[in-house]
Write a sequence for this structure.
């Protein structure tokens, strides 16, 4: 499975590398130069970029796989369907873990206020959990309906998930700013362990279903 | 003698095509040529063997193992070349070789390197930059490098120039005759099959219409040219695809050995002429019937 993970990882690492290389330093620079403290809604909004990162990587990877007829090639190798699907899910899990770990380190170095730090951590775990579930759903969709049929939906959903919070943040900030802050604060007060557990179960559920879909996949003549 | 491949009553139904109770056997160490026109079901049969397509019914045993229950074990022992070889186009040939090698327990790196050199495949080229012929060669290289006991080749010579084609066919014959490997090769280029196959299966419209050893097939199928009244009516009536022309009549028999003695006198006095058929003629006779 490690070989499959290695093959799939460049796209994920590219997205993640770009993110870490540009986003965090820019935010730090802006924070230090403008002396503007980060507010929680901005931090939450920042975390939603994990969706952009992970789901975008999933979609790009499947696009590559489709372009190279990769699944047909893999089907000629001594591999089981569960290994092929499992490698995809394992990589998503690893990348999400790396994102969370790096973000936690960045939070610890950047935020002094313990309450803000705790809320930031909580929001990060909530978003990461949902992200895992959505990535699982994406893979399930790709394996169930095939790249060509599912990619339109995947792109539309990705656009809504990523762009909507941005539009809300920018266009309606004045009107929804306080209310969205309240909503985010309420979310961060939920127990992240519960969200994580539920989303992990759902993530594994989509994995099982995706394996079933993969094992009945035909590469027709 | 053990069978490398045993297919029993294989079924697969699509909207416009169905594989109808296909059965065939390939003893170990033999080369089986699967012949049929485009759309006959050759690729579907081979892909079902490789577990790339699910059958609707029937049974396949490879090395005595059920192909669905032991897919992974079977693929360790089988080399497959598809009709349109696909690789990760953005990866180099050497990357693909190194990556694929990790999945096989019997990978022979020296053989891989040797075959790349012999086929003239650049190690640094990206797979997407390879011509169709080069892709087929790379696919063959990958299929041979884990020293498979069985080779499943779907139209492997399509897109190859005549020199390389001959070379590939000779290599396959050598693998079978001197190393005891089994080969199942599909093609609509019957010359290729004639050159190397021991056994022939004709697949037409999803059905096996003929299955025999090549030598027996060529010995049984003959075209008989005869002048009217030179042939007993009973024998003339038994010929298939009869044609009458200005210079005489002709027809095809698929049982020449049993007619040989009865035709001998006519052959001697030149009122009857026996013409050998090649696999192409037999295929066309099977596909088009009276039009031949």
């Amino acid at each position: 499975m490690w070989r499959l993970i290695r093959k799939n990882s460049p796209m994920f690492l590219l997205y993640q590398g770009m993110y870490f290389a540009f986003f965090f330093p820019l935010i730090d620079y802006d924070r230090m130069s403008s002396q503007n403290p980060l507010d929680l809604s901005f931090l939450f909004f920042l975390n939603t970029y994990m969706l952009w990162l992970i789901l975008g990587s999933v979609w790009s990877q499947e696009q590559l796989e489709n372009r190279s007829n990769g699944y047909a090639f893999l089907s000629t190798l001594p591999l089981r369907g569960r290994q092929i699907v499992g490698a995809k899910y394992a990589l998503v899990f690893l990348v999400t873990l790396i994102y969370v770990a790096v973000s936690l380190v960045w939070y610890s170095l950047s935020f002094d206020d313990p309450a803000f730090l705790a809320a930031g951590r909580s929001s990060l775990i909530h978003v990461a959990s949902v992200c895992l579930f959505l990535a699982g759903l994406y893979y399930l969709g790709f394996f169930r309906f095939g790249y060509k049929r599912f990619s339109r939906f995947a792109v539309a959903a990705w656009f809504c998930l990523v762009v909507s919070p941005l539009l809300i943040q920018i266009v309606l900030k004045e009107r929804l700013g306080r209310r969205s802050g309240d909503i985010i604060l309420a979310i961060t007060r939920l127990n992240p362990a519960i969200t994580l557990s539920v989303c992990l179960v759902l993530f594994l559920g989509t994995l099982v279903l995706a394996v079933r879909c993969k094992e009945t996949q035909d590469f027709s003549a | 003698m053990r069978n490398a491949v045993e297919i029993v009553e294989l079924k697969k139904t699509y909207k416009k095509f169905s594989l109808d109770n296909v059965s065939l056997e390939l003893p170990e160490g033999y080369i089986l040529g699967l012949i049929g026109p485009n759309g006959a079901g050759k690729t579907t049969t081979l892909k079902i063997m490789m577990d790339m397509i699910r059958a609707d019914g029937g049974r396949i045993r490879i090395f005595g193992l059920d192909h669905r229950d032991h897919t992974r074990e079977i693929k360790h022992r089988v080399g497959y070349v598809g009709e349109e070889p696909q690789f990760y186009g953005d990866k180099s040939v050497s990357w693909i070789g190194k990556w694929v090698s990790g999945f096989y327990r019997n990978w022979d790196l020296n053989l891989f390197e040797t075959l790349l050199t012999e086929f003239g495949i650049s190690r640094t080229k990206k797979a997407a930059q390879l011509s169709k012929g080069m892709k087929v060669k790379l696919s063959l290289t990958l299929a041979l490098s884990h020293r498979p006991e069985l080779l499943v080749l779907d139209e492997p010579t399509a897109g190859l120039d005549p020199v390389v084609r001959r070379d590939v066919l000779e290599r396959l014959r050598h693998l079978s005759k001197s190393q005891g490997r089994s080969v199942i090769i599909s093609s609509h280029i019957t010359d290729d099959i004639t050159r190397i196959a021991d056994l022939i299966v004709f697949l037409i419209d999803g059905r096996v219409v003929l299955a025999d050893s090549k030598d027996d097939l060529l010995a049984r199928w003959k075209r008989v040219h005869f002048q009217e009244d030179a042939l007993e009516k009973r024998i003339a009536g038994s010929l298939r695809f009869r044609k009458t022309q200005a210079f005489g009549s002709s027809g095809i028999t698929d049982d020449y050995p049993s007619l040989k003695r009865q035709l001998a006198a006519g052959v001697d006095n030149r009122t009857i002429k026996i013409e050998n058929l090649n696999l192409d003629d037999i295929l066309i006779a099977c596909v088009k019937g009276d039009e031949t």
Remarks:
- Chain B has a mean pLDDT of 87.
